[in-house]
Amino acid sequence: MKFGYFDDANKEYVITTPKTPYPWINYLGTQGFFSLISNTAGGYSFYKDARLRRITRYRYNNVPIDMGGRYFYINDNGTVWNPGWSPVKTELDKYECRHGMGYTKISGKKNDLSVNVTFFVPQDYDGEVQQVVLTNEGSADKSFALFSFAEWCLWDAQDDSNNFQRNFSTGRVEIDGSVIYHKTEYRDRRNHYAFYSVNDSIDGYDTDRDSFIGLYNGFNNPEAVLAGKATNSFADGWAPIASHYKKITLKPGESKTLVFVLGYVEMPQAEKFEADGKTINKVKAKAMIEKYNTPEKFEAGMKELKAYWNRLLSILSVSTPDEKVDRMVNIWNQYQCMVTFNLSRSASYFESGIGRGMGFRDSNQDVLGFVHQIPDRAKERIIDIASTQFPDGGCYHQYQPLTKKGNADIGGDFSDDPLWLILSVSSYIKETGDWSILDEMVPYDNDMSIAQTMLEHLKVSFYHIVNNLGPHGLPLAMRADWNDCINLSCFSDTPGESFQTYTNPKFAAEGGYSKVAESVMVATLFTYSGPNYVEILKHLGKDDEAAKAQAEIDKMKKNIMESAWDGDWFLRAYDANGEKMGSKECEEGQIFIEPQGFAIMSDVGKEQGADLKTLAAIDERLNTKYGLVLNNPAFSKYYIQYGEISTYPGGYKENAGIFTHNNAWIICAAAYAGQGDQAFKYYSEIAPAFTEETSDIHKTEPYVYGQMIGGKDAGSDIGQTGKNFGQGKNSWLTGTAAWNMVAISQYILGIQPDFDGLSINPSIPHEWDGFTAIRRYRGATYNITVKNPNHVCKGVVSMEVNGTSVNGCIVPVVEGQKEYNVVVTMG
Ligand code: GLC
Ligand code: GLC
User: Fold this and answer.
1) Strand pairing partners for 327?
2) 654 lines ligand 2 (CB under 6 A)
3) Contact indicator for 615, 665 with CB cutoff of 8 Å
4) Does the CB atom of residue 484 touch ligand 1 within 6 A?
5) Is 111 left (phi over 0), alpha (psi -120 to 50) or beta?
6) pLDDT tens figures, 129-181
7) Any catalytic annotation for residue 484?
8) Which of 49, 484, 575, 713 is the catalytic position?
9) Are 738 and 336 in contact (CB under 8 A)?
């Protein structure tokens, strides 16, 4: 069942009912100011950091689920409604929500009054601009009242949600004409404020929540709206809000357009106040309001935003036999990559914005799907991340985007972290050809006095693995590897201990974690990512160092085959008791997805057919119609030696859920191994556009990936196996976005940036006759035509570049050449 449709020409998803199976959201803003907005206008705004600079308030896990937002209320002679239906939920005569690239349009109609609201965050602008167009579509005059509404958050979202003894007394506002200023703590220790304006006179306002809503009412029936009149309340403590009230009369056919701005301003300490030392200096706010105070300026801003996205998305566009692939690659997957790049795992409808900042592993992986869009921003991000590394190659697991400092409360010792830096730096060089990133001086632990070159950071990353091996010569698992829920040094039996940060005191003497528990996943990630480091060294003429590093990779491959090959697939780990995890010998959790793809892509055991055996086992044991489950069989009881993974009921999250992020590794691996049909099958099982038809089952947005889909074992604990199978959760902020971008564009379509140029080596469904693509790369345009006359899955028999045939799969770079017409023939 569908709840809308794709409008590819406008790059929009059009939602046709407000009652989607879950709030379906969009993100506004790509630089400093961000807003989340649902299809009923729920959500919130923040500046740079969803925890430390929260501007408006949102109520996570509320009843109903989507509570808090920027709401417009209409009181039309006693009929009270919102153009986005919620929170009043008066049945509308018409409703539509269009989520586009960086904007959302919500329109509702009731009793001949139509209200179209467009929300967007302009480029280089710290505010959300909202244009409200009200039209009388009836044949008689219409008089009604319009109320806007936003609720201020007292800046630190964590403190805001628990420190009520203080916060109920600190809220402050200032009102100046039609502008409501939120200046809580501005007098004291903050140099920033927020405001909510409208470009017209108003007939009243409210700034105190209880006066507007009423202590015993809700967002669905605010007293002021019901009364059809604002109370002109002035917040002093309690909960400050901003609501404009305007009386409007429209003749038949007449329209009125209003432009609202919800903005954020920072002021230098010395210029915070006017001469009286009390009134806030509004110069910057006024300039911001001025910038978008007419419909013409609004349109110009929207036009600029669209041009920005058209330009970004034109860097890669494809035309394949499958329109769903095209809409994922050309529009939505790339769009999601930008969002995950910007926000890591901080703020979504499942991530509260206070739990995590930017993740070391997460953000490095996000770069892989984003780097082609704005390489300069990717470079800056890579440097920020690397700055939280320690001299021994370990690193802080997370950092706050506002301060860019590592989070000490989470700490480090996640065994996979350093390797992702090798991949992100390599992907940046492969995209841009800019080797100078390796010469950048990058601090350790944010301390510039001990800075080293980025190349040195790669070296310590690589050797951090080599220097931390266990009894089988495999990397120590430490607190956890990529799978945060395999906690082999935890042995937790006390509620409240964090599986990620708690290590059992029994390992104190060993430095905090078991020196026996080993991760096969990190071993294969090492053999997959390590060769990039070797290539880099060779390029720099450091052949000795390259040979030394290569020897470590070869040794690791040998160790894997000797100790971690289970006969038909690769083991997952050795636990702290030295027992195998992810083996046929285990009672549950016999096979895990994570180590397999990287092993296949680094040819571990290829001569013995390990790659094909592994792919066959995955297909048999892990695949389902909704994607590949993480492990099988699911754990049905708590394994104290494994930790969090066995705390989830089977079929959810890391315990045999379809954890879509790692599905991409198998898609890549199947494509790499020449199994284009299989690769495409796994791709289409989880790609959002392919789940649109089953939105009632899938529940989350059909235009973006989520972290998890309920697996085949879901419900097994309660004797209802299959319950919630196929149900998506935790949409938007997931490494799935970047990795599936890599999977479809670089492995299936095979357009892969390499150190020496663009490589084209597709692995596609055999039915395809071919496809075309346009790729802008290192300042040139590549017009690519792939022909598949013999209907193979993989194999390039010839490549012609500008009419001349070339050997191999890499398009040779010709200095100064701006256009490459490439014809690839498969066979
Ligand atoms: C979450 C985390 C990611 C981790 C994954 C598997 O998506 O953001 O860092 O790798 O879960 O546990
Ligand atoms: C939980 C989640 C995992 C996430 C981790 C870190 O373990 O299951 O996906 O990465 O928390 O917050």
Assistant:
1) none
2) yes
3) no
4) yes
5) left
6) 999 999 999 999 999 999 999 999 999 999 999 999 999 999 999 999 999 99
7) yes
8) 484
9) no
